[in-house]
Amino acid sequence: MSFFIDFLVIFLTFVVGLYSYYQYAFSYWRKKGVPYPEPSIPFGNWCCKSDEYIGFKIKKRYDEFKTKGHKHVGFYFFTSPSYVPIHPDYVKRILATDYRCFADRGFYYNEKHDPLSAHLFHLENERWKKVRAKLTPSFSSAKIKLMFPSLLGVARQLQTAVDDYFVKRTPIDCKEMFACFTTDVIGSCAFGVDCNSFENPNNDFRRYGKRITGTLTKANTLGSIIALANKSLARFLNVTVTPSEMTKFFVGLVKDTIEYREKNNVTAKDFMQLLIVQKCNEDPSERFTVEEMAAHTFIFFFAGFETSSSTMTFCLYELARHPSLQDKVREEINAVLAKHDGHVTYDAEFLETLDYKVPGTDVTINKGTSVMVPVLGLHYDAEYYPNPHCFDPERFSEESKKTRHSFTYLPFGAGPKSCLVSIVFYAAFKHAFGFWDRANVPCIKASFPFGTSENPFSRREYIGFRIKRRYDQFKASGHKHGGLYFFACPVYLPVYVDYIKNIMAKDFRYFTDRGVYCNEKIDPLTANLFFLAGDRWKTIRTKLTPAFTSSKVKTMFPILVQCGRHLERAMKEICTKDVEFEAKQISSCYTIDVIGSCAFCLDINSFTNPENEFVKQGEMYFRDTLSDYSKLKSLW
């Protein structure tokens, strides 16, 4: 009996003590006079079971407290207080003006037991400052230009994949397509690995990319909760947030890459090579360990994979929904890229602070209090962006931007902790669009993302007229040639007749390929004489040429005469009935009969049987497949 009473006393003491601790912790914002939503035990203002994205949770609170006229609000994550600025001036001070007081993000990391967690996004204080100083030179314009060949190689793989989709007429999963593209870009630029996820969608990089953005194991989920709730406890327990298999893969990949390059004296123009150079620094304090290199390449992968692919996917989605705004959007993107360097966004940043007094108030934010910037709240605030849920590029015109606070738009972050990685992607387009300028060839100003081509998803003008407009434009300016861009790929347009003669006849050996996609294995009908390239074209052309000699063609005359009789009877019938006829349809039936007879030895007679397979397939192919394919391939 006494044991039961002792246990009950201990239990009640624990419960009362725990309750008292929560009540004391939950009094933090009340004592400081900062408005806050009522917290609950044990999660504070956060429910771990909720499927709602954290950015939308913060946005709800932002909207709630801004409606009440507050300039800031306090939250509790378990018992830890978190400060959320609402007024843009407060956001600006935290991210830029008074950045020195908010130097850390407050995330848990453990270099020994979870090496991939010790990357630039998680590091703190002097450790972050030193690593940032080491990595920043790696993202200078000169260093990034070294990666352009890798970027353009991946872009060509994307173009080939898109060509393949349109040839096959299959639906495109844009999210998956862009995920493959960003995976290949990061694999190539960060690790020097040719992933080619379009042909090998189950490669290791794609698998781990899906795992990064997928569901964590129960152990890793529990570790993440502990790490967010109490960093000190997480360090005491040696919590690992990164799955061990993922750590083993990235650390092993870095080790193997270093060993191979050092053993074979190989250098590459990628991020890994820049880290290897830093690893061999004469000053021991400036060197990177293998684990540090793995962590920094991992965050390169993590930061650029999902963010970039999702952004590109939503970009296409909005363009598809608002075709009338596409031209205006391209112009605005060009203006933004010309004025600003791009950075990857993070919807919420946790910043560990020094003691800081909020300007214009009596509130002091104590050291150890996290700060969450309500990015979604600011971006969807009707005060700054009227009708925020509507797609309206005009809100980013120079005139509109002047009317609102500069810190109400934070997709790329702000201040010294902006991400370094995404500049690589924008720099690639900037460099690519300068190709003809560097070659001293007159060119039309390129527009992001389609270059000088029209929107590939519009059907407003036939390709021949587009080319003619560019021809007239260059010739009227007195130029003998011009440069165009299909997306980021440069295309040469001869205007002077002698230049055309040189390309098509005199110097033909330099221009043997049409540059059109073909795949004999997967899409055998594309492997025809018009699409083939190099020696394969030469061999087939040599084989087929004898079939078109005068003597061989003469043997087909009886067949042609028979098709002519079908045409004659059809015309007589039309004249007898005295009805209107479609000349294009009559001509199509005749040419189908000629081709069917001469090529396949079939008496089709499309005039009496207009629904035969040849007619249907011909109409479908030239109306859809070739039309769309040519629009994407040559939109000038």
UniProtKB/TrEMBL annotation:
- SUPFAM superfamilies under this entry? Cytochrome P450
Where does the UniProt annotation locate this protein? Answer: Endoplasmic reticulum membrane; Microsome membrane
Q: Which residues bind heme?
A: C419
UniProt entry keywords in alphabetical sequence: Endoplasmic reticulum, Heme, Iron, Membrane, Metal-binding, Microsome, Monooxygenase, Oxidoreductase
A GO CC annotation recorded here is: endoplasmic reticulum membrane
The record's annotation in CDD domains points to: CYP6-like
Q: Which cofactor does it need?
A: heme
GO MF term list: heme binding; iron ion binding; monooxygenase activity; oxidoreductase activity, acting on paired donors, with incorporation or reduction of molecular oxygen
Where does the UniProt entry say this protein principally localizes?
endoplasmic reticulum
Q: Could you tell me the membrane topology recorded for this protein?
A: Peripheral membrane protein
Q: Which family is this protein grouped under?
A: Belongs to the cytochrome P450 family.
This protein's name? Cytochrome P450
Species the sequence originates in: Aquatica leii
